[in-house]
Amino acid sequence: MSFSSLGLAPNLVHAANALGFTAPTPIQTQAIPIILQGRDLLATAQTGSGKTAAFALPLLQRLPTLTQGDNEQMARAIRTLIVVPTRELATQVAEVVRSLAQTLPKPPKVVAVAGGVSINPQMMALRGGADVLVATPGRLLDLAGQNAIQLSTVRLLVLDEADRLLDLGFSEELDKILAQLPPSRQNLFFSATFPEAVQTLAQHLLRDPVQLAVTPDEPHPSVITQRAILVDTKQRTQLLRHLMKDLGWKRVLVFVATKYAAELVAEKLYKAGIYATAFHGDLSQGARKQVLAEFKNEQWEVVITTDLAARGIDIIKLPVVVNYDLPRSAVDYVHRIGRTGRATEPGLAVSFVSADTQAHFHLIEKRQGMQLTLEHITGFEPTEVAVPTAPIHVDGNGGIKGKRPSKKDKLRAAAAAQSNVAT
Ligand code: AMP
């Protein structure tokens, strides 16, 4: 299968090839022809599946037809709108769209906006409108509220990582945004998971959509090897160092539960001679960008992060992801391990499981429909015994109830940790 056989114009095929995309990924093969037809789309697609190019390529091809008949009065007009959950994803998606648009005879104006930075430069950038606006919900509404943009001209809407948008409590913002869009438009809806709230949103938003499920029924385009190692809590940093050395890991993304833990583990590794740094919501936007750029350039061997980096961050050819602390839910597990095995590269996801977290890990496994052998590593044999806790059970959304915070607690925590998420 080639990109040109999907109905894409030669210059867009050329742009895809120039980025090293020689053949389309499954989501691209399926989604591109449908989007080119102007149909609404409901796609189950994980990060790493190539979903950004799956919507960006046909969006760029459709752009001239979408703006036909517009008049000059539409000075603040937005033609296509891509709503994403995080700042990082906004930047990344805009970069992909710009790179793919380079070869077009008239490259479109692509603007990314997100909270956490001054609104004024974004207002300036939006003077005269934008062909493609990539935005996080809160900042998008701020800009619309200040009359810096006009959403009634949007002809094509993409909701990217819809499940994450709802997880972060953006449901009200999304309603407000949708209320400002014109009724007649094309809608593309991407989500890695489809809990009830996401399904309701999709039903509300889409008109006679074509449904695609590239995951989870079909395997991820590249195979992610998943491993689970039983280890004492106190031994995890040592074990990480051991595995890095033993298995020759050169670049590892490590997930921990808190910002504090991210700092602590990064410091311990750094002191042990490993180039490790922390990445979390307390860092300034500039610092976060820098860490990501340096990680991509292989200046850091290990980046220790919270779930902030679980979605939307694309580090090309990231070979290994480690769950130093287990994720709270099966959904988060999917997103974390999706950081490795990008598109066509193989990846490895290793989870550290302790006596205390073993029951929780089994719940994640159950929801994922998988069963991993809990490995023991020589020299790191577990000695801890589980402390009994209140019974826990899985809720309908992939979250784990009981000891775990409720959805409301999570939303409140997300709001409190504003710096952790986009606004
Ligand atoms: P995404 O799921 O959009 O975050 O894309 C994941 C990664 O796959 C990114 O690093 C893309 O550059 C890469 N990618 C997207 N499409 C292709 C393709 N057709 N062939 C190879 N890599 C791709």
Features:
single chain, 423 residues, alpha/beta, Rossmann fold, 2 domains, 16 strands, disordered C terminus, binds adenosine monophosphate
Brief summary:
This protein has helices at residues 10-18, 26-36, 51-67, 87-101, 120-125, 137-145, 162-167, 171-180, 196-205, 236-247, 259-271, 285-296, 330-337, 358-368, 407-416, and strands spanning 41-44, 78-83, 110-113, 130-135, 156-159, 186-191, 210-213, 224-230, 252-255, 276-279, 302-305, 320-323, 347-353, 374-375, 393-394, 400-401. It is an alpha/beta fold and 423 residues long.
Q: Judging from the principal axes of the Cα atoms, what is the shape?
A: elongated
Average residue pLDDT: 85
Radius of gyration: 22 Å
Bound molecules: adenosine monophosphate
Could you characterize the architecture of this molecule?
The chain has 423 residues and is an alpha/beta fold. Helices cover 38% and strands 17% of the residues. It folds into two domains: 3-214, 3-Layer(aba) Sandwich (Rossmann fold); 224-420, Rossmann fold, CATH 3.40.50. Helix 3 packs across helix 4. Bound molecules: adenosine monophosphate. Adenosine monophosphate binds at residues 21, 24-25, 28, 47-53, 314, 316, 342-344.
Which helices and strands, and how do they pair?
Elements: H1 10-18, H2 26-36, E1 41-44, H3 51-67, E2 78-83, H4 87-101, E3 110-113, H5 120-125, E4 130-135, H6 137-145, E5 156-159, H7 162-167, H8 171-180, E6 186-191, H9 196-205, E7 210-213, E8 224-230, H10 236-247, E9 252-255, H11 259-271, E10 276-279, H12 285-296, E11 302-305, E12 320-323, H13 330-337, E13 347-353, H14 358-368, E14 374-375, E15 393-394, E16 400-401, H15 407-416
Parallel strand pairs: 1-6, 1-7, 2-4, 2-5, 3-4, 5-6, 8-13, 8-14, 9-11, 9-12, 10-11, 12-13
Antiparallel strand pairs: 15-16
Helix pairs in contact: 2-3, 3-4, 6-8
The protein binds adenosine monophosphate (AMP).
The site of adenosine monophosphate has 16 residues, from helix 3.
